[in-house]
Amino acid sequence: MLVRDFVAIIQKLAPADLALDWDNSGLQLGSLNAPVAKIGLALDAVGQTVTAALEAGCDLLLTHHPLFFKPLKNIDLDAPGGGLINRALRGGLSIFAAHTNWDAANLGVAHALADLLELTERRPLEPSPRDFLKLAVFVPKGYEPQIRRALFDAGAGAIGGYGRCYFQTSGEGGFKAPPEALPFLGQAGRETRAGESRLEVIVPRRLADQAALAVLKHHPYEEPAFEFYPVKVYGPGQGLGLVGAWKPARDFLSQCREKLPAGGLKWAGPEPGLVERVALLPGSGGGYAGLARGLGAQALITGDVSYHQALEAAELGLTVADLGHFETEWPGLARLEKLLTAELARLGQKTPCLLLPQTRPWHYGF
Fold first, then answer.
1. How many helices (H) and strands (E) would you count in the chain?
2. Cis ω for the linkage preceding 15 (within 30 of 0)
3. Are residues 62 and 45 in contact, defined by beta-carbon separation less than 8 angstroms?
4. Lower Cβ count inside 10 Å, N or C end of the chain?
5. How many Å apart are CA 295 and CA 311, to the nearest integer?
6. Where are the domains of the chain?
7. How do the pLDDT tens digits run along the chain, 366 residues long?
8. What is the pTM of this model?
């Protein structure tokens, strides 16, 4: 397997177009044509995890957080960051990040945390649409199957887990071929009317050119008529964070202490007791207190809550629990390792995946 083959697998689990504009998910270091025999997973590409990946014989390090967020002005091999890059390159280690696209995926980080808490009746805290194109092409009667096959082979027609999706309706088309043309129907220089079908399929933006070439190659007309429209697709469970329920209500603090991998817990706002509606935003989500409260949540579980965000939550009457950035995102990484292992096995790939040891950045206590 090559890195590019791995990217195609990750695209199914965490589609790249779900990533936020400011993010830098994707290949961080290495080559798409590099071979992959073993994959290591960590939240961050730091000295500890890069060393662990190399010692374990990994060719690829899959991280949640990108190695690069801003353009580099230089690479100083004597500085910590430059030394890390040097070690990874010398060891043949590619680094790939699945960040906000895995946050927003319908099986992603928030859902992994919600599974630990046994939350039901889930909905996204902030829905995240995927940007697609809809291709509409006009096809003469009887030629629809060959155009559909060509488009499906080009990667069109996938909606969520469903493939080969299309819509087709019948109508009449009209045209006048120029005198020098060799029209498939009718005669040059004369107006022609023909029974046609309007065929519509969804196309990922990155595959638009392949879909257009498929139409041009397989369509019987000399100059086929087709067009693209921008569309947004809201998949089930797709978005940043989520709001879920405990029915019956549960004691909030005891559930956090018992079920979540927290090194420490601090909370602000009303003193929590029995809670039914809970919002989750793993990582850094203190700024979502207003949205969580507006969706009926009584409490928000997140990390990296600032002083002023805690004050805002209190004003809103929302309990906000800060369990730590690392602690709230780690379950999502463990989920990704299991899903990736299962997908590799399904494809017949014997590429092992392993969670690499990573020290939590914060230590709690005196």
1. 11, 15
2. no
3. no
4. C
5. 19
6. 3-100+328-355, 109-127+238-323, 130-233
7. 999 999 999 999 999 999 999 999 999 999 999 999 999 999 999 999 999 999 999 999 999 999 999 888 899 988 888 999 999 999 999 999 999 999 999 999 999 999 999 999 999 999 999 999 999 999 999 999 999 999 999 999 998 889 999 999 999 999 888 888 888 888 888 888 999 999 999 999 999 999 999 999 999 998 999 999 999 999 899 999 999 999 999 999 999 988 886 667 899 999 989 999 999 999 999 999 999 999 999 999 999 999 999 999 999 999 999 999 999 999 999 999 999 999 999 999 999 999 999 998 888 776
8. 0.89
Show the CA angle centred on residue 44, arms to residues 254 and 98, nearest 5°: 90
Alpha helices in 14-98 (DSSP H): 47-55, 80-90
Alpha helix stretches (DSSP H) within 196-284: 208-218, 252-259
Q: What Rg value do the Cα atoms of the chain yield, rounded?
A: 25
The tokens for 256 are: 């956090």
Instruction: Give residue 274's identity as a one-letter amino acid code.
Output: L
3-state percent helix, strand, coil for the chain, nearest multiple of 5: 35, 30, 40
Instruction: Give the whole-angstrom CA distance, residue 126 versus residue 347.
Output: 33
End-to-end CA distance of the chain: 48
User: Residue 159: beta bridge partners?
Assistant: 162
Q: Do domains 3-100+328-355 and 109-127+238-323 have the same CATH topology?
A: yes
109-127+238-323 CATH fold: 3.40.1390
Cβ atoms within 10 Å, residue 171: 9
Class of the domain covering 130-233: alpha beta
For residue 133, give the 3-state DSSP assignment.
strand
Between CA 298 and CA 279 the distance in angstroms is: 8
Q: What is d(CA 233, CA 129) in angstroms, rounded to the nearest whole number?
A: 5
For residue 135 the two structure tokens come to 């291709």
Strands 239-251 and 191-204: unpaired
Query: Which tokens hold the place of 331?
Result: 């379950």
Identify whether the C-beta of residue 99 lies closer than 8 Å to the C-beta of residue 66: yes
The span from the CA of 171 to the CA of 140, in Å, is: 10
- Is 174 in contact with 225 (CB distance < 8 Å)? no
| In contact, 173 and 138? CB cutoff 8 Å | yes
